């Protein structure tokens, strides 16, 4: 009698594991099926690249200062200084989004290595 109960418990555990495995397998297949049909990200062509990295910024440099330096070109869409998520202090770099790849090249050639207004530091763009 005791052996029969042990056998029944083992069978119940085996069925539970089989059911769990089937559930995981079905979930995995659903995920793979769903994931397979999602669009893959398109590669960015050189003509679409229009954001410049700006680095080695002093702690006091903000979006307003950079905007005053380059917005007169009429080609700046946005400027973003990256900040520490906890302290909100600037991390010393940011991004300048421009209207076109050609504008990106013009700003890079015009400003990279030149002195930043009111400082002894130079623009470092990439």
From TrEMBL:
A GO MF term: mRNA binding
Record localization: Nucleus
InterPro entries: Nucleotide-bd_a/b_plait_sf, RBD_domain_sf, RBM42_RBP45_47-like, RRM_dom
Residues covered by the RRM domain: 50-126
Keywords assigned by UniProt, alphabetized: Nucleus, Repeat, RNA-binding
Chain spans, region Disordered: 23-42
Signal peptide location: none
Keyword Repeat part of the UniProt annotation: yes
This protein's name: Polyadenylate-binding protein RBP47B
Pfam families: RRM_1
GO CC, any one term: nucleus
């Amino acid at each position: 009698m005791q052996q029969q109960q042990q056998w029944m418990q083992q069978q119940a555990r085996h069925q539970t594991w089989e059911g769990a495995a089937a559930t995981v397998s079905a979930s995995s297949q659903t995920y793979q099926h769903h994931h397979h049909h999602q669009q893959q990200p398109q590669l960015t062509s050189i003509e679409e690249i229009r954001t410049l990295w700006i680095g080695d910024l002093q702690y006091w440099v903000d979006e307003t200062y950079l905007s005053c330096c380059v917005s007169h070109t009429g080609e700046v869409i946005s400027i973003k200084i990256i900040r520490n998520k906890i302290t909100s202090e600037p991390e010393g770099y940011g991004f300048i989004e421009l209207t076109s790849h050609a504008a990106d090249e013009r700003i890079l050639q015009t400003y990279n290595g030149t002195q930043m207004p009111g400082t002894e530091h130079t623009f470092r763009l990439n």
